[in-house]
């Protein structure tokens, strides 16, 4: 029976490209940040973007996440062209399907860790009881339940970054974008944050694009894509 085999290959979600960039160009004035960058992300996989400082990793990540609009080329999520969407539709997509972790936790300083983690759930109109349950679960999983009612300045950098990971993944986004998420941490805390990020992504079947200049971190990814001068090494 050939047909069922063919069908099972077609629907094998492992090979489903959830996000792609093709020939993306971006300049800031005269500075060329991206010069024809291309990458594909399979559903449920972790892709590490590595490369020297200034090679265009963050610029590509922001284009993939719909935070920057490239000058040329295409970004597709689920086959849909991001630059074909209205600004409203793009921000709906970011709120519902995307999560972000940056180098510095960038939590809201006036809010407690618990309140910070609940933010994406409020934006996505989760009911109060579901919200509480989800936030409690994440606080436990990331081992920051004892710090739940403190504000970001009242916890360590590692704890704040764990809260940022919880916030990024709380609404179970399909994509998680992380820009040097452990770059500001010592190696012990960096490893804890990285493990929890990868673990949570796996549990939630979230695809990850992870920017790092650390090859040890990149080794934890399913795929490593190296950038140089705004494009993929090997494509010049
Ligand atoms: N907001 C900006 N304004 C002007 N130039 C920028 C800006 N952001 C990045 N660049 C430049 O674009 C290039 C790529 O930067 P970036 O994407 O931040 O690289 P990476 O994340 O790999 O360090 C660099 O030359 C950088 O100086
Ligand atoms: Mg960067």
Compact overview of the structure:
The protein is 37% helix and 25% strand. The chain is α/β, with parallel strands linked by helices and 236 residues long. It binds adenosine-5'-diphosphate and magnesium ion (MG).
- The total domain count is 1
Mean pLDDT: 92
Strand order of the largest sheet: 6-7-8-3-9-10
CATH topology, anyone? Rossmann fold
How many angstroms separate the termini? 44 Å
In terms of structural class, how would the helical and strand content be classed? alpha/beta
Biggest pleated-sheet summary: 6 strands, mixed
- The Cα radius of gyration reads 18 Å
CATH architecture: 3-Layer(aba) Sandwich
Number of helices: 8
Strand content: 25-35%
CATH superfamily: P-loop containing nucleotide triphosphate hydrolases
Write up what this structure looks like.
By secondary structure, this protein is α/β, with parallel strands linked by helices. It has one domain: P-loop containing nucleotide triphosphate hydrolases (Rossmann fold), CATH 3.40.50. 37% of the residues lie in helices and 25% in strands. The chain has 8 helices and 10 strands. It has helices at residues 2-10, 57-64, 87-97, 113-123, 128-141, 157-169, 187-204, 215-218; strands at residues 17-28, 31-42, 46-50, 72-77, 80-81, 98-101, 175-179, 207-211, 223-228, 231-232. It has a 6-stranded mixed sheet, sandwiched between helices. The longest helix has 18 residues, at 187-204. The radius of gyration is 18 Å and the shape is globular. The mean pLDDT is 92. Magnesium ion (MG) binds next to helix 2. This is Putative ABC transport system ATP-binding protein. It comes from Micromonospora pattaloongensis.
